[in-house]
Amino acid sequence: MNDPRAHRPTRVEIDLEALKHNFYQAQRLAGPGQGVLAVVKADAYGHGAAHVAMALQGVGVEMFGVAIVEEGVALREAGVVCPILVLGGLYPGQEENLLRYGLVPTLFDMDVARRLDSCARAAGVVLPYHMKVDTGMSRVGFRPDDLPRVLEELGALSGLRMDGLFSHLAMADEPENTVNQKQLEIFRGCLDRVRQAGFAPRYVHLSNSAALLTREVPECNLSRPGILLYGALPSPAFAGRFDLKPVMSFRTRIAQIRKVPEGTGVSYGHRFVAERPTVLAVIPVGYADGYSRQLSNVGEMLVRGQRARVAGTVCMDWTMIDVTDIPDVAVGDEVTLLGCDNGQCITADEWAERIGTISYEVFCQFSKRVPRLTNDRR
């Protein structure tokens, strides 16, 4: 079963050297005295969190950020020893695993804080946490107006210790939007209140990828890049301004060549009808793998360094492409759905634009049945 020829040729390839390059770019942008929290939630945006974290923990990462406890546990079981911050919620019954695996919770709810305090005191430990404040995202976080009451109660919970304070920018991918400055000012006020109440958070952080690319926040000593690490930009506004390398490629091989006459309908609903004698390549990739049905008749793939348009509806397990104008195409030829081939590239941003979404979703949509293969040189 270890013979790669025994497996379907469809795979996602992860370039860990490109990942490290992007991490070093994030360090450079953060500047001296700034740590980097690498966001690896959602399986490292579909790139494979264990591989990504193991590659980064040896090159200077301060900590990792995950969304849920289960993601943190998986990293620990994979051998990750760096601090892991759970950015999302903590749900009843998860306290034991949080403590057992040495995960750092985010607090934005006093019921959760009381529950954690009780568990920590019962275990005879003082649990570090990061406090999240809502400065304008209107998602999760303590409201600034509630801080006096919240801080007073947190100060009385002897099983907890504030180790960090953070918030999240709602408009960071629009650098000139005045909401960013307003949120920054609110955050500064929250930081002042926290310190005046006697807390001394070791980490203060606000900048995600977009803010890291455009904004200096001297009060902070930690940044939280996510999409930047994977070689994509938060929005087209940043195009061409930064030296990033794509980390993910999505490839397969042609399973069959079919020659059909003019007028032949292709795939479900015959949404593609051949307007000339046409050569079709049948590709073992479908929407069950994460290749969106919205790419039907509009998506493109690379074969022999040339673009081939999707012909007809994307099926669950198969997709057809029109290779009529590409000479000598054969069964077994490599097909690139995301990535580069002989100087031609299909990017996550291009893919996202075709289906009306963002690169984040493109990366996250590849299913578990598509293996992630790395070029790990450790």
Automatic annotation (TrEMBL):
Cofactor dependency: pyridoxal 5'-phosphate
Binding locations of substrate: R139, M316
Pathway the protein contributes to: Amino-acid biosynthesis; D-alanine biosynthesis; D-alanine from L-alanine: step 1/1
Post-translational modification N6-(pyridoxal phosphate)lysine, affected residues: K41
Broadest EC class assigned to this enzyme: isomerase
Gene Ontology BP, a term: D-alanine biosynthetic process
Active-site residues per Swiss-Prot or TrEMBL entry: K41, Y268
Alanine racemase C-terminal domain sequence ranges: 247-375
Stored CDD domains: PLPDE_III_AR
Enzyme Commission designation: 5.1.1.1
Matching InterPro entries: Ala_racemase, Ala_racemase/Decarboxylase_C, Ala_racemase_C, Ala_racemase_N, Ala_racemase_pyridoxalP-BS, PLP-binding_barrel
GO MF: alanine racemase activity; pyridoxal phosphate binding
UniProt keywords, alphabetically: Isomerase, Pyridoxal phosphate
Family that this chain belongs to: Belongs to the alanine racemase family.
Stated role: Catalyzes the interconversion of L-alanine and D-alanine. May also act on other amino acids.
NCBIfam families in the record: alr
Protein name as annotated: Alanine racemase
Origin organism lineage: Bacteria, Pseudomonadati, Thermodesulfobacteriota, Desulfuromonadia, Desulfuromonadales
